[in-house]
Amino acid sequence: MLTRRLRHCTVVAGLVCLSACATDVRLTTTAVELKDTPFYAQVTDQCGPSALATILQVSGVAVTPEVLKSRVYIPGREGSLQIELLAATRGYRRIPYRVDPLTTALVAELRSGRPVLVLQNLGRKSSPIWHYAVVVGYLPKENQFVLRSGDQARHLMRVSRFTRTWARAGFWGVVALQPGELPALPVAKKYIRSVAGLEAIGDAESAIAGYDAATHRWPQESLAWFGLGNAYYAQENLDAAEDAYKTALTIKPDYSAALNNLSQVQADRGCYAQASATLDIALASVEPNSPMHEILESSLSGLAKQERKSICIASY
Amino acid sequence: MLIFSGKRICILAISVCLIGIPLAQPATASVISTEQAIELDERQSRIDNISEIFARDAVHNTLVRFGVEPADAVARVDALTNAELLTLEQQLQSLPAGGTGIVEVVGIVAIVLIILELLHITNFFAEF
Fold it and tell me: Does this complex have an ipTM over 0.90?
């Protein structure tokens, strides 16, 4: 049986909480299979490192399951956490993007040339057998998905059976995007949040590419411009940061977070009066007692303590 | 063993310095990160959703019947942690959107009790 072949590949399942996920069965009729996707036969219980290496390789990262093992495998629990797979993906300068909980979303990614790392529960809800595999193909005639799974390079699974095992794992599926690359069915907030993960670990360069792609796809999405500003600020590129914050503010004039960060840029230039005026605008637009109000107040008091430069080199 | 030789202290000091380097931010850095902005934004939209539910006639009236000033309840929502806000919002989502049937009335009362409990206005459930 398949489960025996998997040799107890266990997964430390994180909090999976998705409600009202319907699986769209109206899949398209043409077959797709990413035959060049590498295969790493799973060693003992390490499906996480194997599956992650597979999608990273396709996105252009030369990494093997052995190397990943130390990053994502927890020997004591004989498995990998989803959150660690995401973190490791970011560590290799790739944007991990959660696909929508629909089989059509999987197929859309396949058609864009990206295999999808999925979590499956091959057991029951009450006695789960967690497993990571990579979806590499969809065969509508045969009504099957093609997976790199366990020790099988080309594992065929009926759509209905696959969907059940995927549903029991909360429809968890991830693609690894190159910075600047958008997923097949991009959702603005979700994509920007994924890029923000790279900003958070200090990879400003990749974050810039990601936010830049977002501003092109959704020019009216103020959060994308705000993120772009932050990534430029992290690179100490004040001019580019200021431009991006100002674009965000053109879209959303009372954007308090953007005003706060813009005031930082102004302060860094030595333009304290300007910075303080920017913070005043922000303070006027937020509720007193709100967390944002506190942040703005502390920025304002921080401004007073800042070491003074003699001149204000304003670019605008 | 808790013996710190000079050499060990030196290594420790160097390690601390090395750890500190990547964390060193410019003295002026008080920018709001994108992740932080998203969290703050979500918090605000949760508060807005909850306040909107409080403003519905059925909920408003039930709160008053329980002796709670709806404005006080809204003020207390602001003080909730992010996790508490999420719980409250999830509970409130199960509230029927309209109607005056017995199911809806029972539902509203149950939800209001949850609100009161979460907002620490009453210790209703603790008394049983």
Answer: no
